[in-house]
Amino acid sequence: MELTTRTRNLVTLAAVILVLLLPGAAVAGDTIRIGVAGAHSGDLASYGLPTVNAARLVVNEVNARGGINGKKIELLIEDDMCKPELATNTATKLVSQGVDVVIGHICSGATKAALPIYKEAGVILISPSATSPELTQSGQYPNFFRTIASDDRQAKPEVEYVLNVLAAKKVAVIHDKGDYGKGLAEIARKLIQDSGKGEVVLFEGVTPGAVDYSAIVQKIKQSQADAVIFGGYHPEASKIVSMMRKKRMNTAFVSDDGVKDNTFIKVAGKDAERVYVTGPRDNSQNPLAQAANAAHKKSYSADPGAFYESSYSAALALVNGIEKAGSTDMALLSKALQTEKVDTPVGTIHFDENGDAVGVGFAMYQVREGKFVEVK
């Protein structure tokens, strides 16, 4: 169900009031409570579960060496399925449980819905994957940080690759109507229009979860686009790409980190071949990334999934920040996150005054023989 702005505001206000009325909601305990919020079930669980695994691995290691300043860490894990209306409930529940800081949420829409509740409670939130620019540009969320670059830094390499490398003159820009997908698509459209090199021949949204995307595929075909830029997630991307290939359309398909997940390749199969996606830079040469990935394989007997390295980095940044600040107080912890550098799988990072990680960025990948391969 799509909530109106007025309804969402009322839900958020009611949730905040509920939190403030709950007895003991902000009382400190004997442990440091770190919440992990995101999609842990449903179509987008492959994005959220790696964050849970990363948090567990970091917390187990920290607790094994005595915790933070003598306090052990306790994890509080809540599922929002990447849905804004569930994210407000998730945030309310975590705050009522006395959460000190939160890793999450995963999707931009869910993050935006939950942030006012955490802000009211004085809780810092670090997301490994919420890329909407307005989360940091608006200045209204001083409690928000992220270990991934924002969409304005993602759309630029997408557009540059489409115009300069693929030499596309006509571009169809489509999206899933969500905060993340539509926001990224709007940035891409403007960059194309301002470039003087290409023309946006189609700009349109699709409905997430639909069974049939033949209408948008037909519009892409009629537009005679040389390339498609899609803003959204892998469930819709896999269906659209597969339908395009069935119609023998070889139009280049370029998408974002919402599609850079092995689930996309599994679902789309051979139709995923040659698809381009942006994603966090390759950190395979970083010793900390190598160690984090090895720890995942040892504990879970599988390769980590999407946003695992940025999630692991978020957990490390929080642990380092809390230790240096000596507190989970929002003001003190924010200062520590902004001034104290920490070595992580995504590099040595700290955060700017807006909450964006300094030193992270995006790269372009292509699916080749069933794997995402970085292209220059």
Key traits:
Rossmann fold; 14 strands; seven-stranded mixed sheet; alpha/beta; 13 helices; five-stranded parallel sheet; 18% strand
Give the topology, please.
Blueprint lengths: L4 H17 L10 E7 L6 H20 L8 E7 L4 H13 L4 E3 L4 H14 L2 E4 L6 H4 L6 E3 L4 H15 L4 E6 L3 H17 L3 E7 L8 H10 L3 E5 L2 H13 L5 E4 L6 H7 L7 E5 L6 H14 L7 H18 L4 H10 L2 E3 L2 E3 L12 E7 L2 E5 L1
Parallel strand pairs: 1-2, 1-3, 3-4, 4-5, 6-7, 6-8, 8-9, 9-10
Antiparallel strand pairs: 10-13, 11-12, 13-14
Kindly describe this structure.
Helices cover 46% and strands 18% of the residues. The protein is of the alpha/beta class and 376 residues long. It folds into 2 domains: 5-148 and 286-360, Response regulator (Rossmann fold, 3-Layer(aba) Sandwich), CATH 3.40.50; 152-256, Response regulator (Rossmann fold, 3-Layer(aba) Sandwich). The strands form 3 sheets. Strands 7-6-8-9-10-13-14 form a 7-stranded mixed β-sheet, with helices on both faces. A hairpin with a 2-residue loop joins strand 11 (342-344) and strand 12. The two termini are 41 Å apart. Residues 1-28 have low confidence and may be disordered.
